[in-house]
């Protein structure tokens, strides 16, 4: 049975909890601009994550740590203008919450002011005080465990996490710390399906996955990955491409360039028409200038 909601009804955190109770997976996808938000919203996505992955997908950086709050808020406002039904989550960028509780609250509040319904931050027990501060300020907040891109230096790169019992138990401990701090959900990234299931069965949080297998409450994908428009060397095995927008875009621009160079564009049908009498009058007025120029 489809859980697509009438366009007039906004998805909320309560909606997401109801989906879990009915064992219906929620559909998450990233969005960074107005058109993508509109298309994803019309397609029935439940949640749009304005990810700090915009640093790589939109701005061409090599990691997520290069994006600023100001840049994130530009993307966020655009997405929020396009989302009429989907819940929008703002991804708190590097150093926007780690330094202090006060910084975390102000940064989270900026996302809410921009139109988000919730925010996301990376880390478990060590960021639990920040999660508590944000939640105590009345803001819905979720965690992010497993492969946490803001900590790639500590993780040793883009590596699968949670591959042993000890690692799974550490993830569970971090998830429970987030739960105790007031988070409503957690995102698990790049971990075995068995580990994700181990965590999900032992917490009351909503548990979502990106590369974490099917035993979670919903799936997140990077929009550029599924559309085939990500530019870079990273190609996670959990990604499934549903289109080749990058190749299609390049082909279209090549065809346009060829038409311009060959004089095929603009053709008569692409030009604005003038009344014959006005055109004749314009030509007559232009004749002396042509004669002088010659």
Protein model, in words:
It is a single chain. This protein is an alpha/beta fold. It has 2 domains: about 15-220, Phosphoenolpyruvate-binding domains (TIM Barrel), CATH 3.20.20.60; about 250-294, no CATH class. It has 12 helices and 8 strands. The chain has helices at about 15-20, 35-45, 55, 70-80, 100-115, 130-135, 150-155, 165-180, 195-200, 225, 245-260, 275-294; strands spanning about 25-30, 45-50, 85-90, 120, 140-145, 185-190, 205-210, 220. It has an 8-stranded parallel sheet with strand order 7-6-5-4-3-2-1-8. It is elongated. The protein starts with 12 loop residues before the first helix and ends with a helix.
SSE diagram, text form:
Elements: H1 13-21, E1 26-30, H2 34-43, E2 47-50, H3 54-57, H4 69-82, E3 87-91, H5 101-113, E4 118-120, H6 128-136, E5 140-146, H7 152-155, H8 165-181, E6 185-189, H9 193-200, E7 206-210, E8 218-221, H10 223-227, H11 245-262, H12 276-293
Parallel strand pairs: 1-2, 1-8, 2-3, 3-4, 4-5, 5-6, 6-7
Helix pairs in contact: 2-4, 5-6, 6-8, 8-9
Tally the beta strands.
8
Look at the structure and give the mean pLDDT.
Answer: 93
String of helices and strands: HEHEHHEHEHEHHEHEEHHH
> Rough shape?
elongated
Largest sheet, spatial ordering of strands: 7-6-5-4-3-2-1-8
Radius of gyration: 24 Å
Number of helices: 12
Note the beta-strand portion. 5-15%
- CATH top level of the largest domain is Alpha Beta
Second-tier CATH architecture of the largest domain: Alpha-Beta Barrel
């Amino acid at each position: 049975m489809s859980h697509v909601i009438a366009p007039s009804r906004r998805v909320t955190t309560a909606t997401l909890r109801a989906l879990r109770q009915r064992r219906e997976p929620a559909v998450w996808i990233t969005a960074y601009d107005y058109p993508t938000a509109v298309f994803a919203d019309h397609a029935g996505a439940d949640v749009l994550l304005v990810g700090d992955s915009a640093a790589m997908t939109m701005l061409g950086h090599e990691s997520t740590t290069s994006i600023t709050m100001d840049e994130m808020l530009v993307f966020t406002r655009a997405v929020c203008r396009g989302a009429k039904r989907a819940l929008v989550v703002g991804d708190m960028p590097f150093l926007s919450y780690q330094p202090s509780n006060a910084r975390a609250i102000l940064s989270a509040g900026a996302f809410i002011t921009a139109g988000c319904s919730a925010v996301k931050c990376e880390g478990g027990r060590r960021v639990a005080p920040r999660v508590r501060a944000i939640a105590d300020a009345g803001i819905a907040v979720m965690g992010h465990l497993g492969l946490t891109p803001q900590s790639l230096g500590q993780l040793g790169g883009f590596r699968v996490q949670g591959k042993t019992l000890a690692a799974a138990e550490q993830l569970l401990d971090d998830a429970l710390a987030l739960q105790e701090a007031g988070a409503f959900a957690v995102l698990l990234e790049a971990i075995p399906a068995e580990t994700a299931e181990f965590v999900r069965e032992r917490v009351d949080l909503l548990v979502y996955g990106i590369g974490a297998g099917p035993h979670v409450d919903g799936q997140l994908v990077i929009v550029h990955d599924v559309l085939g428009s990500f530019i870079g060397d990273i190609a996670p095995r959990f990604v499934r491409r549903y289109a080749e927008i990058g190749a299609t875009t390049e082909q279209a621009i090549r065809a346009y360039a060829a038409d311009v160079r060959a004089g095929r564009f603009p053709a008569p049908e692409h030009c604005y028409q003038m009344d014959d009498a006005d055109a004749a009058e314009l030509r007559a007025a232009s004749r002396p200038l042509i004669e002088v120029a010659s």
